[in-house]
Amino acid sequence: MQENQRKTPVSLKLIACISAFFFLSYSKFSFAASPFPFAFAAALSPLCSLTAAAGIIMSCISSGNMQSVQYVSAVILIPLLSVFIKKNDALKRGIAVALCFMLSFVFFCITEKFSLRSLAVFSTASVLAGFVCGYTVILLNSPRGIIAEAAVNKPAVALLCFSAVSVLSSFSFFGINPGEIAAVFFTLVYARNYRFAGGSTAGITGAAALIINGAADIRSVVFMGISGMAAGTFINYGRPAAASAYLLVSVMCTAVSGAGMFPVMSYVNIVAGIIFFCMVPVEKVHNEEKRISSTFDEESDMMRISSFRMRLVANTIGNAAEKPESFNEIKKNYAGNAGSIADITESEYRTMSKNILAEQLTASSEIIRSLSSDVQKRFIIDRRITSRMKTVLNENDIGFVSLVAYYNSSRRLFAEIYCPKNSCVSGYRIYRTLSDEFGINFECTKCYDGEEMRFLISERPAYRIEAEISQKSSASSEENGDTCLCFRDSYGKFYIVISDGMGTGKRAFEYSSRAVGLFRQFILGGVDAEQSIRIINTIIRSESTDDYFATLDVAAFDLDNGNMTVYKSGAAPTIFLHGGSIFSVNSPTFPIGAADTAGMFKRTFSLKTGDMVTMISDGVPEKAYGVIKRELTEKSDVSEISENICRLSQKISYDDVSVITARLVRQ
């Protein structure tokens, strides 16, 4: 069995690479050498790029054509591009390829005469080479695999089809042109997948590639767009019907236009492309996809994600639950304390308890509903990557119970690796192993729900948050009563939270840390921020035998698009710098635990790179707001801004002071 599964020797691969690029380098783009073999070679690994460059240079030498000499100037840079530019950096490789190919224009002008036509041809070829190289890099290094990536990356496939037609059209055997055959085939394939819009677009693209190279009679290709549209219209009746519609419209358009009948060999090429399209076993590809998909149980994967979050939320609610005191116990413990909860009547106490219970039940039902349904809306599980990651971890002897890879709503890759609670698995080792395998800059966080350890691996987002916390106590001998926290969830958001507990010192800190701790656990459990605040209010309200409360100020940053959503419950204003202007967000709402129903303000803002946000506790007096605005306008160091505001506020305030300054940074 192992003998049959031996890999192809590296030497044979290198020989095949040299041979392929040797023949491909004979292709043309108008009157110049084709840029596409060069672009493909630059997208490969260093060793493959070196062998591809060798094949291209050998072809140039054997041809003896002076126009091929200028090509060598660009080709010799191919291995250098592969060595000094990361294999998955599509943008840099694409730009480098375009610049290198334009370098060959200089040598062309030395050996040939400069003309505007040659400048236009080389400029167009350079741009196309850059795009083809970049998209090839994306396809080759996609963690989803080439087929899966091609299914969603339509521009990449369209451009690669254009380059394939252009290269193949340079060869002709007794009137049979592979490029024209390929153009018909790709047009029909696009018509099959994307109906008349795809067929017409592919037809126009293929015709352009053939006309540029002068590879076919213009009469036989000028109507490919219309023919492709007809094929897409009839594709619902089967591939033979679509192919027949393509051929019939081609003949009719040529006759109606007065162009006459085009050469017989053009008909041969069209028919060959149609036959090839009808004979390709597309169903086998779909069956293979189904076979791969059948090895995974999507419902089981979703249950794994949901169950961890539900256990985390259940543990949080369970730990927060305490047996409530009876009315008589309250009267006994608080008798004689004027203004306390003991002064209410038994009827008022029972009414308050019913209201709190109703609020708790409503919030709990909404939490269960969101956890059971929102997961499928937020996640797109990728079975191929899940399988590949499992294989990689097993090959590196990294033990795990389960693994699920998925994309969030912004198409950012995540993976959740579940391990036993007593596991000694290193999160850093998981992170490094997967980063090296996929060529992606992953980030890793760890979470424990009491039964399992979860490592959350996430692709680096488009943005990151630079945040700095600065705090001062009202008295140097006391603990600060405010609680500040920064953390990430598993959906691509970064949270900054400030809670100001009633009073000062240790007791106030217990209030604020209670609210912040519950909020973090609910968010990590997948509960929406609004529902989290609502259930926290009922928990604290039910525990409140001495009427304590705490403010809650939250800024949730979407690291994929840069948006910020503010949630406030009795919190101080939030001041932020956006596009050079200062804005303030305030809301007259109740703190957490102050009323039976949570008072909450919510608003979403769209931020830009470099925008800054300052969140403060109630200890920062209004006199300091002018200083905050000046600091945000004049300075960019978030640490310095937070420290300056905190130091000034302490001088003019008798309350605990907390300041968090954050800045949105493009990665």
Explain how this protein is built.
The protein has 667 residues and is α+β, with helices and mostly antiparallel strands. The chain has three domains: 10-291, no CATH class; 296-314 and 379-460; 463-666, Phosphatase 2c, domain 1 (4-Layer Sandwich). It has 24 helices and 17 strands. It has a five-stranded antiparallel sheet, sandwiched between helices. It is elongated, with a radius of gyration of 33 Å. It starts with 9 loop residues before the first helix and ends with a strand. Mean pLDDT is 77; it is low at 1-6, 283-299, 323-327 and 329-342.
Record field, number of beta strands: 17
- Proportion of residues in extended strands: 15-25%
Q: Report the mean per-residue pLDDT as an integer.
A: 77
Overall geometry: elongated
Report helical residue fraction: 55-70%
Integer tally of domains: 3
The unreliable regions are: 1-6, 283-299, 323-327, 329-342
Intertermini distance? 48 Å
Summarize the structure.
The chain is of the alpha+beta class and 667 residues long. The model is unreliable at 1-6, 283-299, 323-327 and 329-342 (pLDDT under 50).
Helix and strand arrangement:
Layout: H1 10-24, E1 28-29, E2 32-33, H2 36-42, H3 46-63, H4 66-75, H5 78-84, H6 90-111, H7 116-141, H8 146-152, H9 154-168, H10 178-213, H11 218-221, H12 224-233, H13 239-256, H14 264-279, H15 282-294, H16 298-320, H17 327-334, H18 346-378, E3 380-381, H19 383-395, E4 402-407, E5 413-420, H20 427-438, E6 442-448, E7 452-459, E8 463-472, E9 482-488, E10 493-500, H21 505-524, H22 529-543, E11 552-558, E12 563-569, E13 574-578, E14 581-585, E15 601-606, E16 612-616, H23 625-634, H24 638-652, E17 657-666
Antiparallel strand pairs: 1-2, 3-4, 4-5, 5-7, 6-7, 8-17, 9-10, 10-11, 11-12, 12-15, 13-14, 13-16, 16-17
